[in-house]
Design goal:
This protein is an alpha/beta fold. It contains nine helices and nine strands. The longest helix has 33 residues. The chain is globular, with a radius of gyration of 20 Å. The C terminus is likely disordered.
């Protein structure tokens, strides 16, 4: 199976060069190894030139699409030759056995995509106020995800795989959503997952917890300002997603998370406070703040949707809208 797999890593900056080379090495050293490892460089000629020069054995290509992670991933899908396309972030390192575990669910022909477990590596210590329920903010698995191999709505982008032709058949990753450079938007994995399973009734996306990667979290991403920005952009991305899908039905997982996981997290934090852990109060407060900020981002996105529905000004008629 692994020889029918293309591992794709997307990168946009030289600042992560050391992590990038670690990510590529960890992918190439999987047992059995993938059929090919592809690096997609997102509109950065200097990074492209260095990668071509210093990364033998890696297929280095430039993003031929719209700038951003979705455009880079689409270039990877177009370039790859494997039946399965596995994606690994440029700041993540795959554990031994990552790829084999990620591919195992494809023995079931109904499986169209899989996702693995993503654990954080904090450059500095984990912030005392950071709740486990919000580790999605830094691109990692969070409290509330399943812990066993079960069907899920969508994988985390740092460690996921797709049936490549199926992904191409639904149009690939939408560029209306997803990260561009340092702008912390998201939801491109959710969107393509919904379209994949909708196109093939009875298909499923499987979580493979034995497939593990370690995701670097910079000091900058461990700050309150990033937490706030990421929550806002996630809410806005969810609003865009609901517009693209024509309903809020795709957000059922978020409703369950809000109703079940977050209140339990607040109570857990208060319980820790009562046992003398002041960080418990901070984490409980961060959960409430994160929910409010994400909701505000969503409301902002919905308001933007209303403006679009009303129609653009005459001077902008025919222009691109999102």
């Amino acid at each position: 199976m692994t020889r029918d797999v293309s591992v794709i890593v997307c990168a946009y900056t030289l600042d992560r060069w050391v992590w990038l080379t670690d990510a590529l090495r960890s992918a190439a050293e999987q047992v059995p190894p993938p059929g090919e490892v592809i690096l997609v460089v997102d509109h950065n000629p200097e990074l492209f030139a260095r990668a071509q020069l210093e990364l033998p054995g890696v297929r280095v290509v430039e993003n031929t699409g719209v700038q951003g992670l979705s455009g880079g991933r689409n270039t990877g899908l177009d370039t790859a030759t494997g039946e399965i396309a596995a994606f690994l972030d440029d700041d993540a390192e795959a554990d031994p056995g990552w790829l084999a575990a990620l591919l195992a669910p494809y023995e079931d022909e109904r499986v169209v995509a899989t996702g693995g477990r993503v654990l954080p590596i904090w450059d500095s210590s984990r912030p005392r106020w950071m709740p486990d329920e919000f580790d999605w903010v830094v691109g990692c698995s969070y409290r509330g995800l399943p812990e066993t191999a079960v069907a899920i709505r969508n994988p985390i982008g740092a460690s996921m795989s797709l049936r490549r032709q199926a992904a191409l058949d639904v149009g690939g990753f939408r560029t209306e959503v997803g990260r561009v450079g340092t702008i912390p938007a998201g939801c491109e994995e959710t969107d393509i997952s919904i379209r994949l399973t909708r196109r093939q009734p009875g298909s499923r996306i499987m979580y493979a917890p034995a497939s593990t990667v370690r995701h670097h979290v910079t000091t900058n991403r461990a700050r309150w300002g990033y937490f706030r920005s990421r929550c806002f952009h996630e809410g806005r991305s969810k609003a865009i997603l609901s517009r693209l899908e024509g309903s809020t039905e795709p957000l059922s997982s978020e409703r369950s998370y809000t109703i079940r996981v977050l209140p339990a997290g607040v109570l857990r934090g208060i319980g820790r406070l009562l046992r003398g852990d002041l960080g418990g109060a901070q984490r409980a407060a961060a959960i409430v703040a994160g929910l409010l900020i994400t909701t505000f981002g969503y409301a902002t996105g919905i308001a933007r949707r209303g403006q679009l529905a009303a129609g653009p000004p005459a001077s902008a008629a025919g222009g691109k809208t999102q």
